[in-house]
Design a protein that fits this description.
heterodimer; A: mainly beta; 6-stranded mixed sheet; 4-stranded antiparallel sheet; globular; B: mainly beta; 5-stranded antiparallel sheet
């Protein structure tokens, strides 16, 4: 089936504006993760959702960042009042909890540039 | 945030050479994963390891979960040009059934020798 999809693929925004990034996980995957990847760096965990449980928000860098997952499927990551240091690639991943497999499958990412 | 120590940071390969890279941590991990990322794309899962001492192969790739549970290595045999890219190790500290985020190394960049 289809893999993880993300939109937009690229986003350029002015400092101070709000942005929304979207993730469509693999159908049937109950867990969804957001990561941030700065240039030349590894992936930094932001937030994850598992079924109906409260999300793990421990990786969110500030209260300008928030995410929600509607109907256990699509997720939106929102960054308010964007700053230049928010420029990065934002990656979404999903995994199938019930298969006792914790392998995460990634989307292509959204490249965010804050000018 | 916390990251794994991945080495080498970069390396050059010549077609046909074997390649090795590894990840170490001061903490115990219950799962090790190896990913490859090509430019402009998300990481692609190569190998997943779930038990200490486990040795798993995927074609020309072989990865091992260290006995101490604090390290893992990835070997690529007989490298080919399409092996170039960035390889990331990732570890999960919580055992099943608890889901948890992955902690990533900073990556090993494979390039072709000039």
């Amino acid at each position: 089936g289809a893999g993880v999809s993300q939109s937009p693929s690229n986003k350029v925004t002015e400092k101070g504006k709000d942005v929304e990034l979207r993730c469509d996980p693999i159908s049937g995957h109950t867990a969804l993760y957001w990561y941030r990847q700065s240039l030349g760096q590894g992936l930094e965990f932001l937030i994850y959702f598992q079924g109906n449980s409260a999300p793990d928000k421990s990786g969110l860098p500030s209260d300008r960042f928030s995410a929600e997952r509607t109907g256990g499927s699509v997720s939106t990551l929102t960054i308010q009042r964007t700053q230049q240091e928010d420029s990065a690639v934002y990656l979404c991943a999903s995994s199938h909890f019930e298969q006792d497999s914790y392998e995460q499958y990634f989307g292509p990412g959204t490249r965010l540039t804050v000018t | 945030g916390q990251q794994l120590n991945q080495s080498p940071q970069s390396m050059f390969i010549q077609e046909g050479e074997d390649v090795s890279m590894n990840c170490t941590s001061s903490s115990i991990f219950n799962t090790w994963l190896w990913y490859k990322q090509d430019p402009g794309e998300g990481p692609v899962l190569l190998i997943a390891l779930y038990k200490a001492g486990e040795l798993t192969s995927n074609g020309r790739l072989t990865a091992q979960f260290g006995i101490t549970r604090k390290d893992s290595f990835l070997n690529i045999s007989a490298s080919i040009p399409s092996d170039v890219g960035i390889y990331f190790c990732a570890g999960r500290r919580r055992p099943p059934p608890s889901q948890g985020n992955l902690i990533f190394g900073k990556g090993t960049k494979l390039s072709v020798k000039p």
